[in-house]
Amino acid sequence: MSIIVNHLSHIYNPGTVFEKEALSDVSFSVKEGEYIGILGHTGSGKSTLVAHLNALMKPTDGAVYFNGVDIASEGYDLKELRGKVGLVFQYPEHQLFEEDVFSDVCFGPSNLGLDPSEVELRAYNALKAVGIGDDQFYVSPFDLSGGEKRRVAIAGVLAMKPEILILDEPCAGLDPRGRDEILGIVDELHKEYEITIIIVSHSMDDLAEHAKRLLVMNEGRLVMDGTAREVFSCRQELEQIGLDVPSATAVLSDLRAAGLPVRDDLITIKEAEEEILRLFRR
């Protein structure tokens, strides 16, 4: 399984006074089993980019290849693609519409033409994977908490059995507990189910804690592509495009600037805690 994005560009409303270049000559590849974070300020092209990865949008120029085939080519099976490359939109709970939770999660796999028993098995397994209890299967999704609705919406995509799961700001609007629950589920899906993860986020802390590789977008262009540690070591470059480093890195940098002998290349809260404790032990 692989995705190759090759010199991808997208222009909204071409040839009109509203013409806007949203993506410009973006190239990268996604390998099986990766956990990738995409970051950038509002309007940098993040959401437009991920919408191309399962052909919800078509390139103005360039191409996206899934397993070596151009997904915009004539006759390409988009239904099969969208079963393999699942996209969870920002605020996905706004798309819940069935009378009960179980029916909502069944909707996606039922459109694949599967046997009803297979549809129900997929829905059951998906709901269990996101921590929804049996007692909630037949309640209205609108009676759930915000975090539970978010988990049900993710289950609806999981029931399609995607090889790649793309999440656009999955923690938007959630409290810290809800955020931790969602990110914990995503981590579990990556580790236990070996699903390739692509996550769009504004949170440097969340990306530092969870993503292994980062793609940084700015004004429609891919400006950085590297490990989380490599990207967050470029604080000046990030600040120039309106971004920052994780809070752990910022604190350690301030301590080092104050003359304390601490490392300033650490990016997670746990790493920062251990480094500060090491300093006190000295």
Protein described:
The protein is of the alpha/beta class and 282 residues long. The chain is 39% helix and 22% strand. The strands form two sheets. The chain has a six-stranded mixed β-sheet with strand order 6-7-8-3-9-10, with helices on both faces. Strands 2-1-4-5 form a four-stranded antiparallel β-sheet, with helices on one face. A hairpin with a 7-residue loop joins strand 1 (2-12) and strand 2. The chain is globular and about 65 Å long. The mean pLDDT is 94.
Rg calc:
20 Å
DSSP summary: helix tally: 11
- Total strand segments: 10
Strand content: 15-25%
Order of helices and strands: EEEHEEHEHHHEHEHEEHHHH
Structural class: alpha/beta
Average of per-residue pLDDT values? 94
Strand order of the largest sheet: 6-7-8-3-9-10
Q: Can you summarize the main beta sheet?
A: 6 strands, mixed
* Low-pLDDT residue spans: none
Share in helix: 25-40%
End-to-end separation: 49 Å
Shape: globular
How would you sum up this structure in a few lines?
This protein is α/β, with parallel strands linked by helices and 282 residues long. 39% of the residues lie in helices and 22% in strands.
Itemize the secondary structure elements and their pairings.
Blueprint: E1 2-12, E2 20-31, E3 35-39, H1 46-52, E4 61-66, E5 69-70, H2 78-84, E6 85-88, H3 101-110, H4 116-129, H5 146-158, E7 164-168, H6 176-192, E8 196-200, H7 204-210, E9 213-218, E10 221-227, H8 228-232, H9 235-240, H10 247-257, H11 269-281
Parallel strand pairs: 3-8, 3-9, 6-7, 7-8
Antiparallel strand pairs: 1-2, 1-4, 4-5, 9-10
